[in-house]
Design a protein that fits this description.
A hairpin with a 2-residue loop joins strand 3 and strand 4. This protein starts with 12 loop residues before the first helix and ends in an 11-residue tail after the last helix. The chain is α+β, with helices and mostly antiparallel strands. Strands 5, 6, 7, 8, 14 and 15 form a six-stranded antiparallel beta sheet that branches.
C-alpha cells in the first residue's frame, strides 16, 4: 500500500507548529546574539556564536526523528552603513571589525524545522543607555512602523504593491528612504525566495521585473524592511561574499574540488543559505564555489552598503496568512519608544488605521495606542497575535 502524501500546507496543524518552533529558536538565539553586541566585540565572533547557538537549539527538538533541521539563514551582523549579509571569514579583513558604542547594528538569522523557516532580523544600538535622537531615531521609527503596516497589509486579497506603496509613504513621513530594489519573498517548505515578491522603493528597471501578486490564505512571507537615514541607494560592498544558497539548476562541474564542495553543500545545508565559514577547506571551497556560482548552481548573498556616514535599519518578520488573520511566526520585539525620540510623525489617517489594526480581524483589542505612537503621542502596545 502506497504511503499517503504528506500535506505540508498550513491546513496541516503540524506545519504551523514547525514554523512556530523554528521561530521560537530564532528568537531565543537572537536575544543571545544581541547580548553579545557590545563595544569591543568582533563581528566574526558574534556570527560564530549565533550559528553555534542555532545548531545547538535545533538539536534539542524533534530528537530521534528523521526531520531535517538547522540553520535557515546564517548569522549576519551588519553595522551602520553596511546594509546586509556581513558574516566574515577568519582570514578576511572584516574578521577584525569590532563594534563600538553608538553603532547601529542589524542582526539577521534563522532556524528551520523540516524545511519550515522562521527567519528574523532586528536592529540594536550598541551601548544605548540614553535617548536616541536625530536620523537614527527617524530611521528606527520609519522601519518599525513600515514593518507593522507591511505585516498587516499582507492579507488575503491585497496586492504586493499595496505594501510597497505603504512602506514608501511611511519612510517619507520620517524623512527616510527604503533601500532601493530590496525584495521580500513568499516562503514555502524548503523555499525562502518564492515566486511572489514585494519590492521596496523600486527603480524603473527593477519594477518591471516584479509581477503583480495577490496574497492568499495559507501563504507565508518573509517581510524584510530596510530603511536608510540617507538616500537608500546601496551598492555592492568590497567585503567578500560569504553567504550562498543552492539553486535547483543542474550542471556537470569540471573541477574535482567543485564537485566535492557542491556535494558537501547539498548534504549539509540543503536548500538553505549557508556561510562558507562552515566549509572545511577555505582555499578549495573558494575555488569550488567560484565554478558553482558561474554556472548558477549557487546564488550569492552579497554584502551591500549605503553611503558611508549614513545608517541602515532593518526589521525582518516571518508571517503566515491564515483564515484567522496574520500570525507572526518570528520577528523582532517592539523597540523602546520611550527612548526613541523623533520630531517627525505619520499624518496619513489611512496608514495610521492600518498600523493600529489587529492582526486578527475579529479581535477587539485596544487599537488606539499604536496609532498614537506612530503619530507622535503615547508608546505603542505590541501586537503579537
Amino acid at each position: 500500500m502506497a504511503e499517503a502524501e504528506v500535506d505540508y500546507s498550513l491546513a496541516n496543524p503540524d506545519t504551523l507548529t514547525k514554523y512556530k518552533i523554528a521561530g521560537e529558536i530564532s528568537a531565543k538565539v537572537l536575544e543571545k546574539v544581541k547580548a553579545a553586541c557590545v563595544s569591543g566585540a568582533k563581528v566574526l565572533d558574534i556570527c560564530v556564536l549565533g550559528d553555534a547557538a542555532l545548531e545547538e537549539e535545533c538539536a534539542k527538538v524533534y530528537k530521534g526523528k528523521k526531520i531535517a533541521k538547522g540553520i535557515a539563514f546564517p548569522t549576519a551582523v551588519s553595522p551602520n552603513h553596511i546594509a546586509t549579509h556581513l558574516s566574515p571569514l577568519p582570514t578576511e579583513p572584516e574578521a577584525e571589525l569590532t563594534l563600538k558604542d553608538g553603532d547601529v547594528v542589524k542582526v539577521t538569522l534563522g532556524a528551520h524545522i523540516d524545511g519550515f523557516a522562521g527567519i528574523l532580523a532586528d536592529t540594536i544600538i550598541v551601548g544605548a543607555s540614553s535617548e536616541i535622537t536625530g536620523p537614527v531615531a527617524d530611521a528606527l521609527s520609519a522601519a518599525w512602523y513600515a514593518s507593522e503596516a507591511a505585516i498587516r497589509l499582507v492579507k488575503a486579497g491585497n496586492k504586493n504593491w499595496d505594501v510597497s506603496d505603504a512602506v514608501l509613504a511611511i519612510a517619507d513621513a520620517y524623512g527616510t528612504k527604503p533601500l532601493e530594489d530590496m525584495l521580500s519573498h513568499q516562503q514555502t517548505r524548503n523555499v525562502i525566495d518564492g515566486t511572489k515578491r514585494i519590492i521596496l522603493n523600486p527603480s524603473e528597471g527593477k519594477k518591471k521585473g516584479v509581477d503583480t501578486a495577490v496574497f492568499e490564505e495559507g501563504e507565508v512571507y518573509g517581510i524584510d524592511i530596510l530603511i536608510s537615514a540617507g538616500e537608500g541607494k546601496i551598492k555592492k560592498s568590497e567585503s567578500r561574499t560569504t553567504i550562498y544558497k543552492k539553486t535547483d539548476n543542474t550542471y556537470s562541474l569540471r573541477l574535482k574540488a567543485s564537485r566535492t564542495i557542491y556535494s558537501d553543500i547539498q548534504k549539509r545545508f540543503g536548500p538553505f543559505p549557508f556561510t562558507t565559514r562552515l566549509l572545511d577547506d577555505e582555499k578549495k571551497a573558494r575555488m569550488g564555489i567560484q565554478e558553482c556560482t558561474q554556472h548558477e548552481l549557487l546564488i550569492p548573498y552579497d554584502v551591500y552598503e549605503d553611503r558611508k556616514g549614513d545608517v541602515v535599519v532593518q526589521f525582518f518578520t516571518t508571517v503566515a496568512v491564515t483564515k484567522n488573520g496574520i500570525i507572526k511566526i518570528s520577528g523582532p520585539a517592539t523597540p523602546d519608544f520611550n527612548k526613541i525620540k523623533t520630531e517627525k510623525k505619520i499624518e496619513d489617517e489611512n496608514l495610521l488605521k492600518v498600523i493600529s489594526s489587529s492582526l486578527k480581524p475579529s479581535s477587539k483589542n485596544k487599537k488606539k495606542k499604536k496609532a498614537k505612537t506612530a503619530s507622535g503621542d503615547a508608546p505603542a502596545a505590541d501586537d503579537d497575535e
